[in-house]
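Subject: Sanity check before I submit

Could someone independently write out the structure tokens for this chain? I want to compare against mine line by line before I put it in a report. The sequence has 23 residues.
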Amino acid sequence: LRKQMARLCIIRECVIMLLFYHD
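---
Independent answer below. Compare away.
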């Protein structure tokens, strides 16, 4: 479960970065 949470965190950061790039 810990690995999955870490992966989700990374994905969330990627999404935030993508949103910033889109802006």
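---
OP: Matches mine. For the report I'm noting this point. The two ends are 33 Å apart (CA to CA).
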